[in-house]
Amino acid sequence: MKTVDRAPWFALPERRGDMVRFVFYLAVAAACVWLGLSLAWSIREALLLAFAAVVGAVLLLAAAEPIERRAGLPRHWSLALVGVLLLLLLSGFFWLLGSRLQAQMTDLAGQLPAAINSIQQKLGIAAPGQAGHLNGGNIGLSGIGSGIQDLLGSLVSLGGTVLTGLSGLVLVVVGAFFFAAAPALYRIGLVKLFPKDLHDRIDDALIMAGRALRLWLLGQLIAMAIVGVLVCLGTWLIGLSAPLALGLFAGVTEFIPVIGPILGAVPAVLLALGQGGWVTLWTLLLFIVIQQIESNMIMPLVQRRLIELPPALLLFALLAIGLLFGMIGVLIATPLTVVLYVLVKKLYVRDLLGEETRVPGEG
């Protein structure tokens, strides 16, 4: 049998002139990569907001496509109808429960400091800053001035944070509608950044990633709704104040994997500790039971029907993205992990390495 000599996948040039050109091109490529990474890092917040808009577009399309199919409406009209329905639902929610929710949120914000002070007194822990500005029971004028300056600085910082958050939210919502109106336009534009022989593979991988992201978002919304209702009913039966606010907070924090359920339990546990006795025990048991129901019943059922990700991968992805990008990174860490997980399995494990593997969102 005749053997065919195959050239190695990488070989250095043999002639001196070719070697010089090779080193030059390699240096140019390395410089371009470095400049690209530096530019991406300098605009990382804008890129994160753009990805958040993509997540919002996936949700809008999930709601608009059934209307588009059944009513025969064009895409822009179905999206407009979804936007109107969302506004009506939010308006109805705040009209029916807004005043009660606002009162409970105010009540919760007023009771949490008192509960924390009660816990500190019971444990004999002094709050930071309580012993610093007092001198024989009298507060000096310098202490008052310093306190006013600190308060004004905190208010200015809080106002800037709120304005930044609102502007970012507006950009995400507007961008989500733009992406949802013509998703193929942006997907094809991204595909054309790669060599032509990779267009089909990249396009298939992006379609799979979008489908997997939609399935994960659907499962997460189901889990958030169930956890929020269970917390609201449980804290109401125990007798804690502001059960609607506690349920809403627990449902929203459920979006954050791993640490979300812990964060959602903090306000209720603090209120219960302030009351002490059996209230604390029942509150702890409530969140333990809800956590067990979520871990062993809700999420396995949802993931078996929709999409499942390795828990350790979510944990360390949340840690890494949070350290790199801060709070915005924590909020979008899981959907970003879903997309990267699909792209790696499809483009690298299956297409490049040739390994048989199941890709979430396929079929």
UniProtKB/TrEMBL annotation:
InterPro entries tied to this protein: AI-2E-like
Top-rank lineage group of the source organism: Bacteria
Membrane topology recorded in Swiss-Prot or TrEMBL: Multi-pass membrane protein
GO CC aspect terms: membrane
GO BP of this protein: transmembrane transport
Cross-referenced PROSITE patterns: PROKAR_LIPOPROTEIN (PS51257)
Keyword annotations: Membrane, Transmembrane, Transmembrane helix
Entry-linked Pfam families: AI-2E_transport
Principal cellular location given in the protein's record: membrane
Keyword Transmembrane helix among UniProt keywords: yes
Spans traversing the lipid bilayer: 22-41, 47-64, 76-97, 162-186, 215-238, 244-263, 270-293, 313-344
Compartments it resides in: Membrane
Assigned protein family: Belongs to the autoinducer-2 exporter (AI-2E) (TC 2.A.86) family.
Xref: PANTHER family: TRANSMEMBRANE PROTEIN (PTHR21716), TRANSPORT PROTEIN YDBI-RELATED (PTHR21716:SF62)
Protein name, per record: AI-2E family transporter
